[in-house]
Design brief:
Rossmann fold
Length: 345
């Protein structure tokens, strides 16, 4: 039985981790931390977990966390990088859901996150945890940097196109939309229902923190520098991301073999579903599930291939992918604890 701890349990990704791990047959959650809610029973804050946990939130304590086999960090940036070195030195394995270890260029990280990085050694050693690309490295990793939500949907959608070299890597566009839970659980006026209801807007169009992560991941896939234009949008729903991706085919005739290319690339991936060409994946079809669904399109007489990619930002975009990485790290069935279908309506 894997003894797991969660640092930062009161946000949406923290409670999603608790929900998924509650029925995982090979995991027991031994501690969950929150400075603001220390002493409060988990089920009092999250009534959906009544009967599943008798834990209370506790202050983060490194000595307590050292008794765990694995610790999930579901914290704001800047927290994990200060605690991880001591934990990994004690033999604890880490899945970090924050952005602290995703970028290899720490000067870029400092520019985007407004502080110097304090754990350069482990930033270099961290494995970027996109299972469909780095499964072998994840299996032996001590520290896994769980990908961001937008980067997950975008990288998976572009993956076969860049691996095959069929598109121009300098002309990629990612037009992505997310529900409000992507902004976290903190109280923000701009995220009140009265502010976002009946509205739809772009944000971060001049630059977003996920852009360098997306660029880094796509460049690694393409084995060449890529140029990608990424614009996120906020839509008035709770969960879900839809990324509409555009790439220019070097040879328009290649479109005829793309469906087969995508189906073959993801045939053995348990959490990627390539739908029939011309389909329109819906975010509700992955709500609460650890799946990415995608479909290919091409408009008449165009050399632009369009990929629609959908995920639940809290599951495949965060907590579900973290559990998937944990399963790989401990050589469990990769789908363990993640096999439930999406919930409708």
């Amino acid at each position: 039985m894997i003894k797991a701890g969660i640092v930062g349990g009161t946000g949406y990704t923290g409670v999603e981790l608790l929900r998924l791990l509650a029925t995982h047959p090979d995991v027991t959650v031994s501690c969950i931390t929150s400075r603001s809610e220390a002493g409060l029973p988990v089920a009092d804050l999250y009534p959906n977990l009544r009967g599943h946990y008798d834990l209370a939130f506790s202050e983060p304590d490194v000595e307590t966390l050292k008794s765990c086999d694995l610790v999930f960090f579901a914290t704001p940036h800047g927290v994990a990088m200060r605690m991880v070195p001591e934990l990994v030195s004690a033999g604890v394995r880490i899945v970090d859901l924050s952005a602290d270890f995703r970028l290899k260029d720490l000067s870029v990280w400092a520019d985007w996150y407004g502080m110097p990085h304090e754990s350069g050694e482990w930033a270099e050693k961290a494995v970027y945890g996109l299972p469909e690309v780095a499964r072998d490295a994840i299996r032996d990793a001590q520290l896994v940097a769980n990908p961001g939500c937008y980067p997950t949907a975008i990288q998976l959608g572009f993956l076969p196109l860049l691996e095959s070299g069929l598109v121009d890597p300098s002309r990629l566009i990612a037009d992505a939309k997310s529900g409000a839970s992507g902004a976290g659980r903190q109280g923000k006026i701009g995220m009140l229902h009265g502010e976002i209801g009946e509205s739809f807007k772009a944000y971060g169009a001049s630059g977003h923190r996920h852009l360098p992560e997306i660029r880094q991941g796509l460049s690694a896939i393409a084995q060449a520098d890529v140029e990608v234009t990424f614009v996120p949008h906020l839509v008035p729903m709770i969960r879900g991301i839809e990324a509409t991706l555009y790439a220019e085919l070097k040879n328009p005739a290649d479109f005829e073999r793309l469906q087969t290319l995508f189906e073959e690339r993801f045939r053995d991936e348990p959490f990627v579903d390539v739908m029939p060409q011309g389909s329109h994946p819906e975010t509700r079809s992955v709500r609460g599930a650890n799946h990415c669904r995608m479909a290919l399109h091409r408009q008449e007489d165009s050399n632009i291939v369009i990929v629609s990619s959908v995920i639940d930002n809290l599951v495949k975009g965060a907590a579900g992918q973290a559990v998937q990485n944990m399963n790989i790290m401990f050589k469990l069935d990769e789908t363990q604890g993640l096999s439930a279908p999406a919930f409708l309506p």
